[in-house]
């Protein structure tokens, strides 16, 4: 596999227009992990999935830690929570800019950051996209598959399923804040099943949803 870069945080030096938090606070939670990864985990924004203090996606909040806990159990993540070692996985957000506590990004703010997200996703060119939560799943299905019009955005049903994308295999993850008994095991088992097969040949697999 061609080495894209060995940098762990913000490997492509993105400079998005982030200026909503006070100047003395972190302005963005940049992508983090293995830029040569086959698995790309996509979250919403730091207020939901964490990282405002650590600068690492999927830290600090219960929802973020739930995702990383599954990644640890399947061998993608090791080391300390605030500065983990990530292998064969890349972590990023649709909206990487931070906001004052309690604030949510506006639709226009997501739109402004979409070109940065898209450019990085295509540079990583992972085989498996793992959107976390409804917004990320909606965005990924709309932008990177032809299945959005055929799929009801029911995260309880979509959780841990496989959906064929345009050059990607999409496996939605229900936000851990909404997990019910068995949801953690479903996504863990799905990841192990994908790892156990020749997933690099799965870009054209048939969807199991829709």
UniProtKB/TrEMBL annotation:
GO molecular function: 4 iron, 4 sulfur cluster binding; deaminated base DNA N-glycosylase activity; metal ion binding
Gene3D superfamilies, alphabetized: Uracil-DNA glycosylase-like domain
UniProt keyword Metal-binding, yes or no: yes
Biological processes annotated in GO: DNA repair
Keywords: 4Fe-4S, DNA damage, DNA repair, Hydrolase, Iron, Iron-sulfur, Metal-binding
Keyword flag Isomerase: no
Domain spans labelled Uracil-DNA glycosylase-like: 30-177
PANTHER family (alphabetical): TYPE-4 URACIL-DNA GLYCOSYLASE (PTHR33693:SF1), TYPE-5 URACIL-DNA GLYCOSYLASE (PTHR33693)
UniProt name for this protein: Uracil-DNA glycosylase
Organism from which the protein derives: Natrarchaeobaculum aegyptiacum
């Amino acid at each position: 596999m061609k080495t894209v870069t060995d940098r762990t945080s913000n490997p492509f030096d993105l400079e998005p227009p982030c200026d909503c938090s006070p100047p003395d606070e972190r302005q963005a939670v940049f992508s983090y992990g293995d830029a040569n990864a086959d698995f790309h985990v996509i979250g919403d924004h730091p207020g939901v999935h964490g990282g405002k203090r650590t600068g690492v996606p999927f830290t600090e909040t219960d929802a973020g830690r739930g995702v990383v806990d599954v990644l640890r159990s399947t061998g993608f993540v090791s080391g300390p929570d605030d500065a983990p070692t990530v292998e064969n996985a890349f972590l990023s957000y649709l909206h990487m800019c931070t906001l004052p506590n309690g604030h949510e990004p506006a639709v226009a703010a997501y739109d402004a950051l979409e070109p940065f997200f898209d450019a990085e996703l295509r540079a990583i060119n992972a085989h498996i996209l793992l959107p976390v939560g409804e917004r990320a799943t909606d965005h990924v299905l709309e932008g990177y598959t032809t299945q959005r019009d055929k799929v009801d955005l029911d995260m309880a049903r979509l959780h841990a399923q496989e959906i064929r994308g345009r050059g990607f295999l999409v496996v939605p993850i229900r936000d851990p804040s909404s997990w019910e008994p068995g949801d953690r095991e479903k996504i863990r088992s799905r990841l192990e099943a994908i790892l156990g097969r020749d997933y690099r040949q799965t870009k054209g697999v048939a969807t199991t949803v829709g």
